[in-house]
Design goal:
Layout (H helix, E strand, L loop, with lengths): L6 H4 L2 E5 L6 E7 L9 H10 L9 H4 L4 E5 L1 E2 L2 E2 L4 E6 L20 H8 L5 H7 L4 H16 L4 E9 L2 E2 L7 H13 L5 E8 L15 H10 L4 E6 L10 H4 L3 E3 L7 E3 L7 E2 L2 E2 L4 E7 L10 E3 L6 E3 L10 H24 L4 H8 L20
Antiparallel strand pairs: 1-2, 2-6, 3-6, 4-5, 7-8, 7-9, 9-15, 10-15, 11-12, 13-14, 16-17
Helix pairs in contact: 2-6, 6-10, 8-10
Length: 375
């Protein structure tokens, strides 16, 4: 995510505010091109997808995620000014909900209390909650629509839950049984999901500074989702045991490829040297079991330091499938930012004009030998 003072040139900037049981969440997105139409029904549908998946807790049954546009839109199109949104909370009892007596291992409870030197765990957990991702989801669905203007698609799928891999049926019955058994034990489950991006032109990202590298930004974005503990690109960790002769993706002539070339494989996952190379981007993320369990875990009472079980808060049993949806979202935000940085332009029409000049229909042999333009 760019921290520059000029987001229209350097990419997108976004921020969120609000607590899990406060009045609402607020999200602001800067750097969108002007004159871009937004399909708000599609944004709302994308937000509903975040509640999908077997193993979701009681909140999924009543939370409506009512979306309101606060600024940045006129007659259905963007103004180029910051886009401001709010997402209403159905449960707004932040001031009356009881405090937790014993912190939950694996959550921000204890570490946050130690930072603030307070026993008010709710002051910590309200913002640490994954509820924050609802605000990012609203922004990310807007970013998805920007990417779609250039034929770029982002799609996630769950690969594994609780050690059980995905079967031929996307609605793996074995997953439901595994989750049901965990629920009966008062336990929770993690898993693995994949995000795949199609249609990216080469050259998105950067290599001039370490923070410009698109692989760094995408891995950090996925790691920012609560409970994500590992991220890999392409062959990932398997590359550690693969010799270079069998790892790197050979460059081959390809008439339909960008500038007349293609690749014999995609073990690098579509990013080389911090830049997209025209191949599909493939990322995977590992989600730990969520730390809120009906069975609880070893903890201590905040007031007496006596041994206790961690306090139980209303929670999911398994959140891997909704986390995969948020995975799509954060990847959309980072890619849209990289696209804005690459193309610039104030309006969507200007972005399209510049996209057309990137050279996909040209050939490597047509280009000069050096940046001065001399052949």
């Amino acid at each position: 995510m760019s921290h520059s003072s000029s987001p229209a040139v350097h990419g997108l900037r976004w921020t969120t505010a609000g607590e899990s049981h406060g009045p609402c969440l607020v999200a602001v997105l800067e750097g969108l091109p002007a004159a871009m139409p937004i399909d708000w029904d599609a944004v709302s549908e994308g937000m509903r997808r975040r509640w999908k998946g077997y193993g979701r807790g009681p909140r999924a049954k009543f939370e409506k995620d009512v979306l309101k546009v606060l600024g940045g839109i006129k007659n259905g199109v963007t103004l180029g000014s910051p886009l401001a949104l709010s997402v209403g909370n159905s449960d707004t009892r932040i001031d009356t909900l009881p405090n937790l007596k014993a912190p939950r291992p694996g959550h921000a409870d204890l570490a946050g209390a130690m930072r603030s030197k307070t026993r008010d765990l709710r002051a910590v957990l309200e913002r640490a909650s994954a509820r924050e991702t609802a605000a990012r989801t609203a922004l990310g669905e807007v970013a998805r629509q920007l990417l779609a203007q250039f034929g770029i698609t982002v799609k996630a799928e769950t690969l594994e839950i609780g050690g059980t891999p995905r079967g031929s049926d996307p609605e793996t019955p074995a997953w439901n049984e595994t989750i049901r058994a965990a629920h009966e034990r008062g336990d929770s489950l993690g898993g693995v999901f994949q995000v795949r991006v199609e249609g990216c032109p080469p050259g998105l990202g950067g290599l001039e500074q370490p923070v410009d590298r698109l692989d760094v930004r995408l891995m950090a974005a996925l790691a920012s989702i609560p409970a994500i503990r590992g991220v890999e690109i392409g062959l990932g960790f398997r590359g550690a045991s693969t010799p270079g002769s069998k790892y790197h993706d050979g460059i081959v002539p390809e008439e339909a490829g960008w500038a007349g070339v293609g690749r014999s494989s995609n073990r690098c996952g579509g990013i080389e040297g911090g830049l997209t190379n025209g191949q599909a981007i493939e990322l995977r993320a590992v989600m730990k079991p969520i730390p809120t369990m009906r069975h609880g875990a070893d903890s201590v009472k905040m007031e007496t330091l006596e041994s206790s079980r961690a306090t139980y808060e209303r929670s999911d049993v398994c959140s891997v499938e909704p986390a995969s949806v948020v995975g799509e979202i954060v990847v959309c935000l980072e890619l849209a930012s990289a696209l804005r940085a690459r193309l610039g332009g104030w309006t969507l029409a200007e972005m399209r004009e510049r996209f057309a000049t990137l050279g996909g229909e040209e050939r490597l042999s047509d280009w000069p030998d050096d940046l001065s333009g001399r052949s």
